[in-house]
């Protein structure tokens, strides 16, 4: 079983490390711009770093849950690829936002699209599993048969 999710676990750990990195950036920004805790306002440069980290933290639970659901019920490989794309998008988002509010937009849209694909493949995987379990019908296998995708000859 673990071999079927080890790569998803690796992406999860990578995501946790990314979150820790974002948190450290807030600490460095607090020192640089003299904004002592618990203050959350200060120069615009600090507020952008603080807000970028907070936004990434707010979406992290949604990312982790959908990453694992997609990895368990759809495909570890697809889940991992989407997870890496999402983390890359969030990294670009963080640094884009730290530079300017406008710099966050393209990476934000990118990571949101990746997140929606993760939600979709996870949902498809769960629905197909439930269909096999409760109805005895496997929609993905049937679709592959119709399209001739199960032929490796």
From TrEMBL:
Key word Membrane present: yes
InterPro entries, sorted: 5_LipOase_AP, FLAP/GST2/LTC4S_CS, MAPEG, MAPEG-like_dom_sf, Membr-assoc_MAPEG
Top-rank taxon, per record: Eukaryota
Enzyme class at the top of the EC tree: lyase
Record PROSITE patterns: FLAP_GST2_LTC4S (PS01297)
Regions that span the bilayer: 59-87, 108-132
Subcellular location: Endoplasmic reticulum membrane; Nucleus outer membrane
GO molecular function, one term: enzyme activator activity
Membrane-topology descriptor: Multi-pass membrane protein
Protein EC: 4.4.1.20
Pathway of action: Lipid metabolism; leukotriene C4 biosynthesis
Cellular component, GO annotation: endoplasmic reticulum membrane; nuclear outer membrane
PANTHER family: LEUKOTRIENE C4 SYNTHASE, MICROSOMAL GLUTATHIONE S-TRANSFERASE
Annotated family: Belongs to the MAPEG family.
Functional description taken from the UniProt entry: Catalyzes the conjugation of leukotriene A4 with reduced glutathione (GSH) to form leukotriene C4 with high specificity. Can also catalyze the transfer of a glutathionyl group from glutathione (GSH) to 13(S),14(S)-epoxy-docosahexaenoic acid to form maresin conjugate in tissue regeneration 1 (MCTR1), a bioactive lipid mediator that possess potent anti-inflammatory and proresolving actions.
Quaternary state and interactors: Homotrimer. Interacts with ALOX5AP and ALOX5.
Protein name, as recorded: Leukotriene C4 synthase
């Amino acid at each position: 079983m673990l071999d079927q999710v080890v790569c998803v676990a690796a992406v999860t750990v990578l995501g946790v490390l990314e979150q820790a990195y974002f948190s450290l950036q807030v600490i460095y920004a607090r020192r640089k711009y003299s904004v002592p805790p618990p203050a959350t306002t200060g120069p615009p440069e600090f507020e952008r770093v603080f807000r970028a980290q907070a936004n990434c933290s707010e979406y992290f639970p949604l990312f982790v849950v959908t990453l694992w659901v997609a990895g368990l019920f759809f495909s570890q490989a697809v889940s991992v690829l989407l997870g890496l794309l999402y983390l890359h998008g969030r990294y670009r988002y963080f640094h884009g936002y730290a530079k300017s509010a406008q710099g966050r937009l393209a990476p934000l849209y990118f990571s949101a699209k990746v997140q929606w694909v993760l939600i979709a493949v996870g949902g498809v995987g769960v629905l197909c599993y439930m269909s096999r379990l409760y109805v005895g019908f496997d929609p993905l296998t049937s679709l592959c048969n119709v399209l001739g995708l199960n032929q490796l000859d």
